[in-house]
Amino acid sequence: MIKVDIRRKAFGDDEILRDIHFEMKVGETLAILGPSGIGKSTLLRLIVGIDLAFEGEINRPEKIAMVFQEPVLLPWRSVLENLTLVHPQLGTQAALSALERTGIVDKAQLFPGQLSLGQQRRLALARAFAGRPELLVMDEPYVSLDPTTAEEMLALTEALIAETAPAVILVTHSDVEANRLARRCLRLAGSPATIIREFAAGSASAFWEGRHDRA
Amino acid sequence: MDYSCTLSKTLQHPALVRASSLGLLLVFWIAAAGLTADASVLPQPWALWVPFEKAAASGALPYHLGMTLWRVICAFVPAMAIGVALGFLMGRVPAVDRWLDPWLVVFLNLPALVLIVLCYLWIGLNETAAIIAVVLNKIPNVATILREGARALDPHLGAMAQVYRMAPMARLRHVIMPQLAPFLAGAARSGIAVIWKIVLVVEFLGRSSGIGFQIHFYFQLFDVAMVLVYALSFIGVMLLVEAMFLQPVERRVRRWRTA
Q1: Which residue range forms the structural domain that includes residue A34?
Q2: Are B43 and B228 in contact, with CB atoms under 8 Å apart?
Q3: Distance between B238 CA and the closest CA of chain A, angstroms
Q4: Domain named ABC transporter: which ranges (chain A) (predicted)?
Q5: Cβ separation of B163 and A86 shorter than 8 Å?
């Protein structure tokens, strides 16, 4: 059970977020939509607990994973070590099978810099799911990928979510991603940003709002 | 075939460039010694061999070389440890930076000689004073370099380590240290070069062993050849340390960049 109850978040006098309240059950997938610069990334940082300076309360589970806009890997450690150092409880064998699941097991001994961007993102996904998280937070994870790779990654993410069944919070600009991964959508707007509407993914409004968002 | 092209390529080989550059320096030395034509002012390079052999055989050269090297190590280790810790704190915690920055400016601009003389006056003409003087001279440099490194730490990697709850030691070893490595290498390099020069001054002023003491001794005898023998021997040792220790470590740490 995840409960987000943010009354106010500000940087100095600059108020970013106000009155954002929602609850999620484990296994539920939620998409957060909104124009860029509105404070979606700030909201995610509050939810995962990187930023603790806000008014309000957030109940989050113990095991959290996050997929960032960039892969955010340790470039000085091998692909395999990027899993085993972040998840020390994971054995080499389990780490290898996590790489196998994401299709980069043959790269285990390379450094991340030797992988393509798509492969680096697969590693970031493997790292996120390897810890069997109860909450997975994804911050525009497919941005800057070409359409084919993005589609592959989307399919892989879908499968991994189905296997691990965490609660998922997804920030995205793409209506396609929101519709495929999420059941519920929240739309942020205004300054300071707040939730202006909540709707089920796949409904016409989600589609049109997504389109509008991109324009 | 295109000989000029092959020639210019050969001339760009790093080892060859290094050797020719050193050779050029030697040529200048020989020319200058020829022009002065007075071995008591500047002896020819080959005239140093006999005094070098004598000093090495008598055991004087190895003993004083060893003493200086020992002082360099004794000063290098604490100077690096304290400088790294201070610099890192200053780079990460703005309040610490605000408080310590003026001190840093004062100590950076305090001449090495002043610190050495004050240490000898306050602590006495002993080994402790000598080492402390060198350490105090070096800490501000290390701290300044490491502060830049700590400021340049990638916030995204920090966030990643925090979300995935990496243990503090793992974070230090695998997330922070690799990012600080170039700054550590830079501080160690410039550190060791500066430290041995200051150690020589410390020995010159108030020790009865070490290269600095010997240079002081032969300076009073106006023996340029022996001054050069001692100075060049230590330069040789430092080049060895660089080639055998610093460069291999740096290569290992940089492996991921070139892979």
Answers
A1: 2-63+134-214
A2: yes
A3: 29
A4: 1-215
A5: no
Instruction: Answer yes or no: do A145 and A204 share one domain.
Output: yes
Q: Report the distance separating Cα B164 and Cα B156, nearest Å.
A: 12
Whether B252 has its CB under 8 Å from any CB of chain A: the answer is: no
To test the contact with chain B by mutation, choose from A86, A87, A139 the residue with the greatest count of B C-beta atoms within 10 A, namely A86
CB–CB contact B170 A85 (8 Å):
yes
More confident position, B10 or A149: A149
The two structure tokens encoding residue B136: 């105090």
- How many helices and strands (H and E) does chain B possess? 14, 0
pLDDT recorded at residue A144: 75
Specify whether the CB–CB gap between A17 and A11 falls below 8 A. no
- Spans in chain A with pLDDT lower than 70: 202-215
- What chain B holds in terms of domains, given with CATH numbers, is 49-258 (1.10.3720.10)
| A91 and A196 fall within a common domain | no
Q: What is the CA radius of gyration of chain B?
A: 23
pLDDT of res. A211:
45
Lowest model confidence (mean pLDDT) among A15-19, A201-205, B17-21, B205-209: A201-205
Q: Is the domain of A118 the same as that of A82?
A: yes
Interchain pair B163, A114: CB under 8 A: no
> Residue B7's pLDDT is what?
66
Chain A residue with Cα closest to B179: A76
Q: What's the pLDDT at B259?
A: 74
Query: Average pLDDT in the B168-193 region?
Result: 90
Phi then psi for residue B78, to 5 deg, are -65, -35
CB contact under 8 A, B170 and A72: no
| A7 SS3 class | strand
- How far does the CA of residue B170 sit from the closest CA of chain A (Å)? 7
**Residue B45's pLDDT band (boundaries 50, 70, 90)?**
confident
Say if residue A163 is in the same domain as residue A57.
Answer: yes
Report yes or no: A132 at the B interface, CB cutoff 8 Å.
Answer: no
Average pLDDT of the residues in B78-83: 94
In chain B, the residue whose alpha carbon lies closest to the alpha carbon of A67 is B160
Q: Which residue of A has its CA nearest to B256?
A: A76
Per-residue pLDDT tens digits for A10-62: 888 888 888 888 998 888 899 998 888 888 888 999 999 988 889 999 998 98
What is the number of residues in chain A?
215
ipTM of the complex model: 0.85
Question: What distance in Å separates the CA atoms of residue B201 and residue B189, rounded to the nearest whole number?
Answer: 19
Instruction: Tell me how far apart the alpha carbons of residues A138 and A128 are, in angstroms, rounded to a whole number.
Output: 10
A103 within some domain: yes
Instruction: Establish if A68 belongs to a structural domain.
Output: no
